[in-house]
Design goal:
alpha/beta, TIM Barrel, 8-stranded parallel β-sheet, 9 helices, 16 strands, binds flavin mononucleotide
Amino acid sequence: MSALAGVALEHPVMNAAGTCKSVEDVDAFARSAVAAIVVGSITRQPRAGNAGNVYWPGRSYSINALGLPNRGLDYYGAHLSRMVDRAHEAGKPLIVSVAGFDVGEYAEIAEVVAGTGVDLIELNLACPNVWDGGAQKRIACFDPDQTAAVCTAVGDALLARAAGDPGRRVPYGVKLSPFSDPAALAELAAVLAELAGRPVGPRFVTAVNTFPNAFVVDADNRPVVDVELAGMSGPALKPVGLGQVRQLRQLLLDSVDVVGVGGVGEGRDVAEYLRAGAVAVQAATAFWNRGEDPSVFGSILAGWIDQVDPAAP
Ligand SMILES: Cc1cc2nc3c(=O)[nH]c(=O)nc-3n(C[C@H](O)[C@H](O)[C@H](O)COP(=O)(O)O)c2cc1C
């Protein structure tokens, strides 16, 4: 048994944001081995995402520039309660990933989502693949002030929604990009630690989202995704993800859990992230590279159980 921000998990393996977007997807994940179902990222407006080739499945790394395709807050406001029921019937908590374009949007979405019975909210402060009028959207977590502003607004919204009953407060966490500057990571961690001391501060940190703005060409020198610059994930991201988890575990208060993401594809990866200080792990590329088949989580889990107890049947 594991636990994330006070929510019990049967084991530490779950899907990462970007893999489950609809009621039908939740049904498929409810039948899978994941310990919790992560839905989203969701935005206020429905988004088609970027056009053309947006995913390239490599063996040692994958590249994606999906650009947050999702059905928008009206859809999720209307359907999340059903998704929660389906997840809970399967004995799995439901986590929703929220991606806003400004502070107010994060707070508005979090407030609606919190009213649907979800167990946890993950604020995606790290999406690199959103372009607006030709300009790339700033990655929020690289700006400590912006991170503090989003967390404060979300915390206030969740506090108001709980109407004085701490039992109704939905815990939230933040998902980060990989930081290459250790001092910048320490600065952000100090902000998160200060926020975590408040009644509704972040209770977990998910590390990491894709490495921003990778560039890959095929044998004919053509970019493999149409928007050219795209987020990198998969096995090559694992040492980076492990390093971020290791640093964050040392930098954050014990009351803030760390979730490890990046290159989880087999049992050994789960064991490494847990040893580095994570309480749970998530995977996206392994799912996409198995044809969007949630059975991959059963394989990862079986491999981890084999690592922990090679004598298990
Ligand atoms: C196709 C694809 C779509 C993704 N969409 C999202 C998303 O909507 N929100 C988010 O927080 N992360 C998203 N991610 C990032 C993953 O959740 C994860 O952090 C990253 O891919 C590293 O894990 P991996 O090596 O297991 O893929 C996406 C990743 C991929 C490959």
